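Next comes this protein:
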Amino acid sequence: MVLNLKQWKVASLNKQRAAEIAERFAIPDFLAMMLDIRGFTTDEAIEDIFSSEYYLSDPFLIKDMDKAVKRIQAAIDSFEKIAVYGDYDTDGVTATAILFTYLDTVGANVMYYIPQRESEGYGMNKDAVRFLHESGVNLIVTVDNGIASIEEVDLANELGMDVVITDHHRQHAVLPNAVAVVDLHRHDCDVPFKDLCGAGLALKLLMALEGGDEDMILAEYADLAALGTIADVMPLTGENRVIVKAGLEVLQNGGKPGLEALIRQSGSSDRELTAKMLAFTIIPRLNATGRMSSSEKAVKLLTCDYEEEAEILASDICEENTSRRSIEADIAKAAMAEIESNADLVTDRVLVVSGENWHAGIIGIVASKITDHFGKPCIVITKQGEIAKGSGRSVEGFSLFEAITSCAELFEKFGGHPMAVGITLKTENIEALRIKINTYAQNAYHIMPSQKVHLDCKLNPAFVSAGMPEQLKQLEPFGAANAEPVFGFYKMEIEKIIPVGGGAHLRLQCTRNGSAITCMCFSTTETAFLYEVGDIVDLAVSLDAKEYKGQMQLTIIVKDIKPSHLDLDTNIQSYRMYERFTREEKLSAEEAQMITPSREELGDVYRKITAKNGLTVGLLSLTAGFAKPTMTLGKLLICLTVLNERKLAECQLLNEQVQLSLLPTSGNKINIYDSAVFSKIKDLIE
């Protein structure tokens, strides 16, 4: 059974402050309310939101920037050979393209080097350093890597090469012995904004090389820096907001031939250029080159000057992305099947799933999909003989990096951050990892965190208009730390459920107090929909508007849905107790009580099955349909298990739904409390 329960969190709003913002800046109340919710409350912050001017802080405030500029400028002047050492993801590729293009433009003797994901891995490596030495390189400038390359920099020094590091990853205990270490996260680097990605830092390096000529650098390179910023999921606030806004403007006015070709080849020429559009169309294609073949192809695309060459490269990259999607779908299907077919695995706190020779460049994407589907941290592992490689993704509130650190002795290599990790281990240690990481989760997290739906505010359907999405555009670009706004419509009655798009999507007509709205549930079929006409639900939605026959038409897009009268926090907790019961973990008396139904509650469930005999219903909707608030999801699942065991009903769990069927009885009285389920609960009480 797959049941992904999400917590709904509504942001705080100071209505009085929002009203003052609306009056002070002469803006609509809705926009002022959104500014307050998003934390844009000072005059300076609000003026920055509305400003069409771009400002970045002085690049020379960054530690060692002066040393980096001096050494690079000397190499340019004396025509020393410079190697830009990048990385294979979109941030590394765009950072490489930024610095390489600039150095080439100013007449430097420059080349670039991107390590292969499979054979070399992330960052500098000694074989690459030796190759660059043999190629006549005098100066290596890293972008998006290098802060941890202690031995590699020492080797470069021994071979007579200088190294300038530009990186945005965290400093280790010791800094590399480079000519300059330009990293915003150095302990001794005090700058106004530290959250630049590799491409954003490369942009600041160019500003420094140009003596602070911000406007020229943004006009030439902001499009590439914007891609890197969005791809690396950097917070779209402060200087990142400036970079992405400037980059979108460059793209809108006609960017580089390679990017223009990639936008055309992806079928996005007629789409509005937004950070979201780039994240879902262009960036996956650039990333596909590093996953499927070589990221050098992406650098060539981003640095080429000729449209014909750009079209050929863009076409190849789109084909690689299509191949990547096919392989990704196959791995995801196999991994999902492995989890769902294993009763022990599916109830784990942390999902660890493995397969033979799954594509190592794609397992991270699959881990993300599995985490979204199950609502649990997940590590996907590919077994390649005696050695296995894994990639993990987490949920908000669970540090996957701390979790794998607790298993450090099982790994040959590991790294990452709270939300994503990478590991290398012996194949024979995979099962030990699954056991140890779940033991850690059990001890460190009594109740495992759930995925969350963050709502900006609740909306009254009577006051929603097609003009609202246009007001929201003032807050763009949307992304990390400035997410696309999501709103709540509460206590809405479903009046009609209409299949559209050949049955692939649903249109919902809902009302509250006489006010009606129409919503879209994309990629949801009628059979998979968990609710019925007449249900009272809460909707988490986004707002969009498009012009139709000269008028703006509002589109309300459903992101999540839940029964209105259901206490999600209580039900999530009871479901976690039910999972502990299935894993046969000890429960306190209070915890056992959370999933132990009374005789009356068992009777209510039996009567509900009688009323819905032969139907398939959503578990949350079924839970919310009981008159007594004491009925929780955990209790309901125990009731269904007991009725199955005592052969009073057949209740087949189908992910978030249950198929209900009464079974004929012999007429003999059945003592339902003779069920082994109740005995098991008692045995588990500490």
About this structure: DSSP finds 25 helices and 21 strands in the chain. The chain has a mean pLDDT of 94. The radius of gyration is 28 Å. The first helix runs from residue 15 to 25.
